[in-house]
Write a structure and sequence with these properties.
By secondary structure, the protein is an alpha/beta fold. The chain contains 23 helices and 24 strands. The chain binds ligand C2E and calcium ion (2 copies).
Length: about 750
């Protein structure tokens, strides 16, 4: 664009220069022509004067010849002045008829030949010295062929009376009647005339030649728009003065007309250029702004405006080299929000976003400039404290502050909800630059994992022994994978001796009893166990989360369901079977058909099966999951909400998913008899369930007091170590038989009493 504009302006400039050049050339030519014209006119004048003075001279000569007395008496005689009228007549011929400014008849001695008035005499006296050379010139040139008709004459441009003039002298031979006079036959006179070139003559010239404002000046004092033509004396070439006029300059005229046009064109080009430049600059500005924005976005989180993982890593790398030399420390804290997902799911993403921003606000208030709070994605944040004193444990205060702040309720505008979340924090303290950033982040992650798995709402500082736990976890994961692979469809069977020994799975059953306090079994909950060759009997808490994380829960869950269904099929028909189900199982396509085919294979009526889902699992369920549950319920399978009260205890979920049973978490049951509010909470849950028409099971009953309270409060079913621990199938069968025996005995007693009566 710049090139285009420069080219445009250059072309315009060339056109302009060419126009100026052409204009000045044509001006020079015009000026030259005008000067020539003036010069020609002056030459014409000189010529005309020389012709005219011939004529006037001839007239004088004949006049003198006709009346020599005039000459005698009025010119030379003693009584000068008496023939004034005749002399004036001569003068007038020259001045009025021919337009000369003065005419004198002069003797060869340079005297006025005719009488003259005082004014004429005075004028002659003034001009005489100037004209004398002319006369003298004529005199010395005298011997001329008298045969020639032409009289000797001289015409010359000169300055007379201070004005530019053309002066002419013609010699006149005076005729004497006496024939011999003292002046002799050839008494010699000279007629001297002159005409001023300025005034009327100059007006005529300028009119004829079109010289605007022509004037005479003794010096070349022309204005900038005028030219001066020097008049030089014809004879001597002596400067007389200048004719000054405003020349007609066609070139300048053209330039004068072109200049505005070209200027406008130039202005337009320049304007266009600047407009384009302005736009270009604007778009460049916008471009760089959007580039800046893009760069900012690429290293920042859009929602919270916090630096992202990449920028966090940059800050981390920058702080490492100074630590050891300056004896400083840095700390990375990985912060993971608890229950964020629940808020997101129950109140929507807008509420989730608002919660994240509010959480960031609270965290930011606790850190100082120079610290980096970063969002790694989802509900995971990282805090870098890059410059701490070696002995400074302020990071613990900051992290505990964050835990405290985030555990306080958040009042959300979206959904007008007050929510409680919390967070877990994994910390790594850095002393030097000996570890790469990904190792440091891994360590923080290990600590965070430990914080989360050890109860949440905690902070855990990295310790190398944590790595052993991670390693142990990894080993357990591999063992579980091997176990599920080796044992195929039946991990409960002893694996082939040749295979690596990773133990076996077994389902334990915990009896569930009627809530009427009669001690009758209503069913059992299937709880999986792992007999590990080195670790012993593993409870599900040790390996279910690993199975969930690694996707192995699908096969594991299926195996438990099949095993339990097969076992339960041989139980009395009044006993129901509860099986725990993970969210990913519900989400899995075809789950419902799997369940139904397992039940039909095992020969267990669907109405005897109850699937237990935690609230977190319900939150994870999408529309397809809901449809799955719908299908299962339509076949008579019941759905129980496990661990009620520990998750998000949302009434809307109870209604939305058409839950059949609420399992009151053992954390509430354990409050019974220890804390006053325990009874209130449990009563409230029971009241709620009754209102909604849901069955209830109280979990974790360990004392008679708890049992009695729950029986009195009308809980549908009871479960807990007090009544029965989870036991292997063989033992559970004994319980069934025992109960049945007891029942049978009771029946027999009633019959005997009736008979005796
Ligand atoms: P859960 O569903 O809440 O099961 C009840 C847990 O509480 C069982 O632990 C049980 O042994 C324990 N328990 C029962 N009564 C008492 C009591 O009076 N006091 C105390 N302190 N504890 C009691 P367990 O067997 O270790 O199971 C832990 C969790 O593992 C279960 O919690 C369940 O969520 C999960 N789980 C067990 N088996 C499976 C399974 O096959 N699939 C899935 N997805 N999860 C399972
Ligand atoms: Ca359960
Ligand atoms: Ca439970």
């Amino acid at each position: 664009m710049l090139l285009l504009a420069i080219s445009g302006l250059a072309i315009l400039g060339l056109v302009f220069l060419a126009a100026i050049w052409a204009g000045s050339e044509s001006d020079a030519a015009a000026l030259d022509r005008q000067r020539h014209l003036v010069n020609d006119r002056l030459e014409d004048l000189v010529k005309r004067v020389s012709q005219e003075i011939q004529m006037i001279g001839a007239g004088y000569a004949s006049f003198l010849a006709a009346d020599p007395a005039v000459l005698e008496e009025k010119i030379i005689g003693p009584n000068r002045g008496s023939g004034a009228s005749s002399a004036e007549t001569f003068g007038k011929i020259a001045t009025t008829a021919f337009g000369y400014n003065a005419a004198f008849l002069v003797t060869s001695s340079g005297e006025l030949a005719l009488n003259a008035d005082a004014e004429t005499a005075r004028r002659f006296k003034w001009v005489r010295p100037l004209l004398q050379p002319l006369i003298h010139d004529l005199e010395t040139d005298q011997p001329q062929p008298s045969t020639s008709a032409a009289k000797p004459s001289r015409v010359q441009l000169m300055r007379l009376e201070g004005r530019p003039s053309v002066a002419g002298v013609v010699s006149i031979k005076g005729a004497s009647p006496a024939g011999a006079h003292e002046h002799g036959q050839g008494a010699q006179f000279y007629l001297v005339v002159f005409r001023f070139l300025d005034g009327a003559t100059l007006d005529t010239i300028s009119r004829e030649q079109g010289l605007a404002g022509a004037r005479y000046a003794r010096t070349a004092d022309q204005e900038h728009n005028e030219v001066a033509f020097q008049i030089a004396a014809t004879g001597s070439g002596e400067p007389i003065g200048f004719i000054i006029w405003e020349p007609d300059l066609p070139g300048s005229r053209v330039i004068g007309r072109l200049v505005p046009v070209l200027s406008i064109a130039g202005l337009i080009i320049a304007g266009l250029f600047f407009a384009l430049m302005g736009r270009l600059r604007k778009s460049l500005r916008e471009l760089s702004a959007s580039e800046h924005h893009a760069r900012h976005l690429s290293v920042h989180d859009v929602l919270t405006g916090l630096p992202n993982r990449a920028l966090f890593a940059v800050h981390l790398v920058q702080c490492l080299p100074d630590l050891a030399p300056l004896r400083r420390r840095a700390v990375i804290a990985l912060i993971d929000l608890d229950k964020f997902k629940e808020v997101n799911d129950s109140y929507g993403h807008a509420a989730g976003d608002e919660l994240l921003r509010a959480a960031v606000g609270r965290m930011s208030a606790l850190i100082k400039p120079g610290d980096t709070l970063s969002r790694f994605g989802g509900d995971e944040f990282a805090l870098l404290l890059p410059d701490l004193d070696e002995a400074d444990n302020v990071y613990l205060a900051i992290c505990n502050g964050i835990i405290d702040e985030l555990s306080k309720p958040f009042q959300l505008n979206t959904g007008d909800a007050a929510v409680r979340i919390g967070c877990s924090i994994g910390i790594v303290v850095i002393q030097d630059a000996s570890h790469p950033t990904n190792e440091l982040l891994r360590r923080a992650d290990v600590a965070l994992y430990e914080a989360k798995s050890s109860g949440r709402g905690r902070l855990v500082e990295y310790d190398p022994c944590l790595d052993h736990r991670v390693e142990a976890r990894e080993n357990l994961k591999n063992d579980l994978r091997l176990l599920l692979e080796q044992t195929g469809e039946d991990p409960g069977l002893q694996v082939r001796p040749s295979a690596a020994h990773v133990g076996r799975l077994e389902v334990y059953y915990q009896g569930v009893y009627h809530g009427d306090g009669s001690g009758r079994l209503s069913g059992a909950e299937a709880l999986v166990r792992w007999h590990h060759p080195t670790l012993g009997l593993l409870s599900p808490d040790k390996f279910i989360p690993i199975a969930e994380e690694s996707g192995m829960i699908l096969r594991l869950g299926e195996w438990v369901l099949r095993d339990a269904a097969q076992s339960a099929a041989s139980w009395p028909a009044a006993l129901s079977l509860s099986v725990n189900v993970s969210p990913s199982q519900i989400r899995h396509r075809g789950f419902e058909s799997h369940v139904l085919s397992i039940l039909s294979e095992a020969g267990l009526r669907p109405s005897r099966l109850e699937l237990e889902l935690t609230e977190a699992a319900l939150f994870d369920i999408d529309e397809r999951g809901q449809a799955t549950l719908g299908v299962l319920r339509s076949h008579g399978i019941r759905i129980a909400l496990d661990d009620f009260g520990t998750g998000f205890s949302s009434l809307s979920h109870l209604i939305q998913f058409n839950i059949d049973r609420i399992k009151i978490d053992r954390s509430f049951v354990s409050l019974l008899g220890t804390k006053a509010e325990g009874a209130a909470i449990v009563s409230a849950i029971l009241g709620l369930s009754r209102t909604l028409g849901k069955a209830t099971t109280a979990e974790g009953i360990e004392t008679e007091g708890q049992k009695d309270f729950l029986v009195a409060a009308g809980c549908s079913d009871l479960q807990g170590y007090l009544l029965s621990r989870p036991v292997p199938l063989s033992e559970f069968r004994k319980k069934i038989d025992g109960v049945q025996v007891a029942e049978d005995r009771a029946t027999m007693n009633v019959a005997a009493q009736t008979v005796s009566a």
